[in-house]
Amino acid sequence: MTGGAGYIGSHVVRAFQQAGIPPVVLDDLSSGHRGFVPADVPFVHGSILDVPLVARTLAEHDVTGVVHLAGFKYAGVSVDRPLHTYEQNVTGTANLLTAMADQGVEAIVFSSSAAVYGTPDVDLVTEATATTPESPYGESKLIGEWLLRDQGRATGLRHTSLRYFNVVGSGTPDLYDTSPHNLFPLVLDALTQGRTPRINGTDYPTPDGTCVRDYIHVADLADAHVAAARALGEGRTLEPVYNLGSGDGVSVRQIMTAMADATGIAFEPDVAPPRPGDPARIVASGELAARDLGWRMTHTLADMVSSAWEARRAH
């Protein structure tokens, strides 16, 4: 499992353990944490750019499939660091596939992103929605999907890519989101530091005037990776991509209200001007994932917020 020491990856590791599938983690710890990996899980400190290291890891641990979560994930920063983004996400994925081919590992689940859609012009995003990424990060994830597709055509590689939006919450208090860019950590940090969280724009054409987005609990996301890996391991035919979405979404103001309820800190968020390019609504359908992977969201917004707050207080 590449990137298994990160916020999402560490939850996927736990989910694989609970499913009785022994994981091996390879992570360069550029954004992950060694302490997020259980002591009984083999850990290799290194980069997916290092083909010999990846090949040796696959061979030494008798790996039969890969969950690829490693990557540079900050869309905004990728605009200023495009070459770094492409090296980590495109060259890194190509190198991983090279090592897999060398070692005869023939199955991979790729952690993709809803950033491949850019700003969709539909109310409900499906897998057929046009891919028009608007950042080097989104472009790099789409290229990663193409690499899997082309390798599948060339070698029979079994693969699928999971596209998802905003991952939040915590499956256990010792694992938490440490991103400096994500909404939940930003709001919780503001509240614990005595600052007032901010809403960017309140006059969007949505029920309460704030942007609506798709949020998914990290434990539900981890379960989707297990389901996809099992399906590939069983030789089942999967779609090349699946959206992991709620189908209805949550507004920023709803999140603020849930934050006040979960933390017990009453506040009225500051209102700032809307950010240029922010679409009013981005929500995806998870119907294909439900059909083929038996996947569904099991956590409510209250679950997402309360678990994030519990993990934040623990650290």
From TrEMBL:
Protein's UniProt keywords contain Nucleotide-binding: no
Cofactor(s) in the UniProt record: NAD(+)
Gene Ontology MF terms: UDP-glucose 4-epimerase activity
InterPro entries for this protein: Epimerase_deHydtase, NAD(P)-bd_dom_sf, UDP_G4E
Source taxon at top rank: Bacteria
Any one GO BP annotation for this protein: galactose catabolic process via UDP-galactose, Leloir pathway
Keywords from the named record: Carbohydrate metabolism, Isomerase, NAD
Pathway assigned in UniProt: Carbohydrate metabolism; galactose metabolism
Keyword hit for Cell division: no
NCBIfam families according to UniProt: galE
Family: Belongs to the NAD(P)-dependent epimerase/dehydratase family.
UniProt protein name: UDP-glucose 4-epimerase
Gene source species: Cellulomonas biazotea
